[in-house]
Design goal:
The complex is a heterodimer of chains A (314) and B (112). By secondary structure, chain A is mainly alpha-helical. Chain A contains eleven helices and two strands; from the N terminus they run H-H-H-H-H-H-H-E-H-H-H-H-E. Chain A has two domains: 75 residues, no CATH class; 193 residues, no CATH class. A two-stranded antiparallel sheet of chain A has the order 1-2. The mean pLDDT of chain A is 83. Chain B is built from four helices and no strands. The chains are: A mainly alpha (314), B mainly alpha (112).
Amino acid sequence: MSFELNYELLVGLLVLTTAAWSVAARDSYSATVGFVSYGLLLAIVWMQLQAVDVALTEVAIGSGLTGLLLLGAAARLRATERRIVARPSIALRTLAALACAGISVALAATVLSLPQPAPSLAAEALAALPATGLGNPVNGVLMAFRAFDTLLEKVVLVLSLVGVWSLAPDLGWAGRPRLLHPFADDGVLKFLARTLPPLGLLLGLHLMWNGADEPGGAFQGATVLAAMWLLVLMAGLGEAPQVRARWLRVAAVAGPATFLAVGLAGMGIAGAFLAYPESHAKALILFVEVPMMLTIALVLALLVAGPPERTEGP
Amino acid sequence: MNPTTLFGLCGAALVGIGLYGLLTDPRLLRKIIAFNLVGSGVFLLFGVVARRGADAGLGGDPVPQALVITGIVVAFSATALAVALLLRLHDAGGGATLDDGADSAGKDRSPS
């Protein structure tokens, strides 16, 4: 067995261990911490699979923002979480374990019997890429070949924000999402919230702009921007906007609306919904990406911040 | 066995681990975490399909990779909504677990 495979075996085992920990840990907070480290390790697996764009997304969203969301929830539920949880009986758990193992074995058998040679759209995607003016094939798929998926994904983001907001208690509508970190007075958090955002802003825009030709893209860039805003909110240096604010609602739909408008215009100019005329493909994609990045950053941060709550004072 | 197959088996195991947590833990937050494990296991299987489709000088088939990126984002949206539902249920006094014992205890406490 080569060193290379030993390394991969180690990463795989670590991923499975952290996954098992986040299921088995007694305390939900520890389980959530396990889940965050699981996400980071999984990103290493994505790197090993040569999927840099996916690794970036997994670190930023799968581990980072999801982790922040779950840690916040775990901290709030911690006080009332009971020490002893009535799990199903041993017999039922054994049955569940056997059933789950069966599903895993069936999936493993499928992995081992995947067709050789593997079907691939890589050559076709690469052949069609020059028409989009982009150099990163993954971004070409996201913004041009499968633009419909990306459009619907943005709509899902906005819809889930509507869902989260609609869970606000009646009195909460006049308030703002509350996201103050319990250790906000700690100097470290405030220091980071003052020094990191300029760098984060630069990095976010760089990821978006460079995503055209290298790994990255509007999404990964927007996540960095959202993280910077969340850092400022958590340190108590800024306040989340009131959800009634009109600019906020306009900004939340600006991305998908621009995308949809360009898509509809494509019907007239290029002959199909979401088609770009070949001469202006790159410019149009950038035109869609900029408002989309704004929307994504805003919506991601607001999804983490949660529904608005009643606040003391005006 | 090559590394890609190894990670495929890893993805298959992750789906099983996640499903087990989803079925057996009555705490809702733990169910959300377990569901995310199932999701990432499925994404990993898809990533293996992408890696096997490496062709034309690319490290992997970009189409499944792009779909996984979309999937991660949609999973995050669903998680955010689930966490918001859970916290609202908790704040409204409904508890944060599907445990039968906790339910009856809650009924005892409520004024009747």
